[in-house]
Amino acid sequence: MLEEIVNRKKTDLKFFQMPRQEYVPHYSLQKSLAFAGIHDGIGLIAEIKRASPSKGEFASDLDIISRAKAYEAGGADAISVLTDQPYFQGALTDLITVKKAVGLPVLRKDFIIDERQIEESARIGADAILLIASILEPNQILEFSKLAKNYGLESLVEVHTKNELDRLLDVYEPPLIGINNRNLKTFKTDLNQTIELFSHVPEQSLVISESGIHTAEDVSTITRAGAKAMLMGERLVTDGDPETVIPELKKGAQLA
Ligand SMILES: O=C(O)c1ccccc1NCC(=O)[C@H](O)[C@H](O)COP(=O)(O)O
């Protein structure tokens, strides 16, 4: 699936057009999550996600402005916006819309494989980008992170296996490391991934546990493992009242 997504991305990049610059205020993802880690025990990146390869469509009629505002009101510390169209029904304009609706850092969640997508992310107003270790070489991650920094963007580097983490750390110790609990071959999520990989992450990196987090108990599990932040998509996007549920989920960190 990942290979299919990346091949499609390469094809789409043949028709690439640089968007115009949006002028928006910027916020640091790292600072926001670190502050929440101290204040609430866990930081939350709440995701805008309409569909996924694993679940198909589950929120195609999502009102992204009211959802993003509800995330903010509920106590999310950042918002992730999936901008991939073919597999997630996202769009660059979703990120622009969300960024203008809230006063939080916004992560562009996409499959970044080309330097032009980094300038594109900066132009649409993202505060941070996702770099996925399973589709990029460690040196590329280092170069893309430097380029992102030049554009004023932070990078969240995502790993799923110990091998990906080891190869990455040989060349670069990212300040923000995402441990993806989802196996992108089987789509199965397992929070043990966070538990197993956490001890191999450098102390100074802030760990974000991603995917498959649904309950306060799950939040307690990943907090106990050492994660200082979490990224939640489906659970929040399908909830009728994220404003109420976010504080309840965050309380899981206090049970750890
Ligand atoms: O969500 C998927 O099915 C998926 C499949 C292939 C590549 C990426 C995928 N998801 C992107 C994400 O990183 C998740 O949206 C994010 O971690 C939130 O996950 P969840 O809370 O389980 O919706």
From TrEMBL:
Question: Which keywords does this chain's UniProt record carry?
Answer: Amino-acid biosynthesis, Aromatic amino acid biosynthesis, Decarboxylase, Lyase, Tryptophan biosynthesis
What residue stretches are annotated with the Indole-3-glycerol phosphate synthase domain? 8-248
Q: Which reaction does it catalyse?
A: 1-(2-carboxyphenylamino)-1-deoxy-D-ribulose 5-phosphate + H(+) = (1S,2R)-1-C-(indol-3-yl)glycerol 3-phosphate + CO2 + H2O
| Keyword Transmembrane on entry | no
One GO MF term on file is: phosphoribosylanthranilate isomerase activity
Its pathway, per UniProt, is: Amino-acid biosynthesis; L-tryptophan biosynthesis; L-tryptophan from chorismate: step 4/5
Matches recorded under InterPro entries: Aldolase_TIM, Indole-3-glycerol_P_synth, Indole-3-glycerol_P_synth_dom, Indole-3-GlycerolPSynthase_CS, RibuloseP-bd_barrel
Cite the EC number.
4.1.1.48
Which example biological process does GO assign this protein? L-tryptophan biosynthetic process
Task: Please name the SUPFAM superfamilies in this protein's record.
Answer: Ribulose-phoshate binding barrel (SSF51366)
Which NCBIfam families does the protein's record reference? PRK00278.2-4
Tell me which family the UniProt entry assigns to this protein: Belongs to the TrpC family.
Record-given protein name: Indole-3-glycerol phosphate synthase
